[in-house]
């Protein structure tokens, strides 16, 4: 099978398109033929070694396709079933072996491309909005990178709950897209200081919670956006890792809370995964979340997809097509 393989950590040029052996599923595993594969910022961390894995490694943590075969002890899946998954590395390949426990059955109402574009981002939005800080109607949130794949899903979903949603984006086109997808206000951070603008928009009070997948460039200013005892949710580091060398800053800025959640912990148990997927699929089917796939690349063009993602030239979800 053709796959994208990282033999040495590095830039997009480290993504090699070549043949690999797949084999047959073992106990508790299924073999899946991909119809679409999601691209996420975490894939770049696996490529560069920021999140190291033994080499060689096939990146990618999200996909959708059909079951080809099942291993011993697998129940709930059979050949021909439509499935989707997130959170298990190895997706940049035509067919793969994966743990059956990581897959969920895909409703007929959701096509493969949509599923590949929402599983990781949508389930991340689910735990952020419903578990990390259960957003309530009337609360105000700040969501960075509101026009990205995560941002569009999360902002729509938060708006459907009844939250006031303030987003940030980097150019006028992205501002317009975020406004059309759940944001009440969108701050163009390339033209104005987002912390100052958030204070203006909230009459000096600040927001209840900040969701930040950007990282180093936005973290400290995001603390200035929070109300006293508000929560800073740092769930990614697209611009570099975040550090808080002086915990006293949280006291000085309002007895703030900070968390660094991951889906690996929120979905460690299968019932939690199934509950999240059920909620996500229901949100898509009801129209509360309207997925937006902004870019499609052939699997062989994964390096170009990474360049676009890291160059902030993407909107919505990005997918690879085998």
Automatic annotation (TrEMBL):
<keyword id="KW-0560">Oxidoreductase</keyword>
<dbReference type="GO" id="GO:0005829">
    <property type="term" value="C:cytosol"/>
</dbReference>
<dbReference type="GO" id="GO:0035925">
    <property type="term" value="F:mRNA 3'-UTR AU-rich region binding"/>
</dbReference>
<dbReference type="GO" id="GO:0008270">
    <property type="term" value="F:zinc ion binding"/>
</dbReference>
<dbReference type="InterPro" id="IPR020843">
    <property type="entry name" value="ER"/>
</dbReference>
<dbReference type="InterPro" id="IPR047618">
    <property type="entry name" value="QOR-like"/>
</dbReference>
<dbReference type="GO" id="GO:0070402">
    <property type="term" value="F:NADPH binding"/>
</dbReference>
<dbReference type="InterPro" id="IPR002364">
    <property type="entry name" value="Quin_OxRdtase/zeta-crystal_CS"/>
</dbReference>
<feature type="domain" description="Enoyl reductase (ER)">
    <location>
        <begin position="10"/>
        <end position="320"/>
    </location>
</feature>
<dbReference type="InterPro" id="IPR013154">
    <property type="entry name" value="ADH-like_N"/>
</dbReference>
<dbReference type="Pfam" id="PF08240">
    <property type="entry name" value="ADH_N"/>
</dbReference>
<dbReference type="InterPro" id="IPR013149">
    <property type="entry name" value="ADH-like_C"/>
</dbReference>
<protein>
    <submittedName>
        <fullName>Quinone oxidoreductase</fullName>
    </submittedName>
</protein>
<dbReference type="InterPro" id="IPR011032">
    <property type="entry name" value="GroES-like_sf"/>
</dbReference>
<keyword id="KW-0521">NADP</keyword>
<dbReference type="GO" id="GO:0003960">
    <property type="term" value="F:quinone reductase (NADPH) activity"/>
</dbReference>
<dbReference type="InterPro" id="IPR036291">
    <property type="entry name" value="NAD(P)-bd_dom_sf"/>
</dbReference>
<dbReference type="Pfam" id="PF00107">
    <property type="entry name" value="ADH_zinc_N"/>
</dbReference>
């Amino acid at each position: 099978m053709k796959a994208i393989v990282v033999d040495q950590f590095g830039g997009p040029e480290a993504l090699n398109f070549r043949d690999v052996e797949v084999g047959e599923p073992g106990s508790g595993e299924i073999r899946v033929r991909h119809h679409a594969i999601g691209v996420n910022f975490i894939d770049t961390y696996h490529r560069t070694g920021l999140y190291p894995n033994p080499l060689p490694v096939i990146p990618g943590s999200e996909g959708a396709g059909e079951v080809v075969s099942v291993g011993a002890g697998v129940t709930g899946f059979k050949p021909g079933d439509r499935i989707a998954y997130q959170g298990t590395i190895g997706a940049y390949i035509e067919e793969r072996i994966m743990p059956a426990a990581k897959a969920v059955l895909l409703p007929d109402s959701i096509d493969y491309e949509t599923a590949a574009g929402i599983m990781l981002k949508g389930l991340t939005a689910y735990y952020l909005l419903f578990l990390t800080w259960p957003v309530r109607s009337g609360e105000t949130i700040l969501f960075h990178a509101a026009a990205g794949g995560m941002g569009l899903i999360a902002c729509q979903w938060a708006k459907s709950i009844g939250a006031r949603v303030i987003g940030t984006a980097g150019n006028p086109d992205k501002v317009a897209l975020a406004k059309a997808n759940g944001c009440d206000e969108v701050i163009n951070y390339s033209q104005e200081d987002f912390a100052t603008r958030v204070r203006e928009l909230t009459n000096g009070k600040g927001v209840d919670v900040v969701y930040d997948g950007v990282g180093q460039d936005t973290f400290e200013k995001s603390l200035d956006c929070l109300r006293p005892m508000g929560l800073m949710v740092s769930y990614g580091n697209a611009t570099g890792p975040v550090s808080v060398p002086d915990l006293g800053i949280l006291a000085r800025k309002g007895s703030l809370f900070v968390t660094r959640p991951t889906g690996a912990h929120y979905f460690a148990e299968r019932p939690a995964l199934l509950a999240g997927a059920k909620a996500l699929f229901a949100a898509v089917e009801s129209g509360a979340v309207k997925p937006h796939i902004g870019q499609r690349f052939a699997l062989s063009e994964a390096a170009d997809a990474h360049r676009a993602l890291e160059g902030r030239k993407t909107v919505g979800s990005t997918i690879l097509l085998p």
